[in-house]
């Protein structure tokens, strides 16, 4: 039986292999690194786009909130990413929590 440290290593390797940090990367939105924006939708208004998850190749249409719900398995009408294991979820949540904390701290 594989140890949990092996599972954790596999999950982190998977994230490393799909993470893309674009030149316009904004640390406030870390989960954009795990999806590919294919096209803007809604006539260019707002942040809506057609998005493909780099982990499971599923299409998601919407904004960062829908990406977050998909990758962090939050539900709310968004199918969760089947490739996100517990170890991957912990890592993604940590990245999002750091971004949320830095944004909240900057507003003080």
TrEMBL record:
<protein>
    <submittedName>
        <fullName>Uncharacterized protein</fullName>
    </submittedName>
</protein>
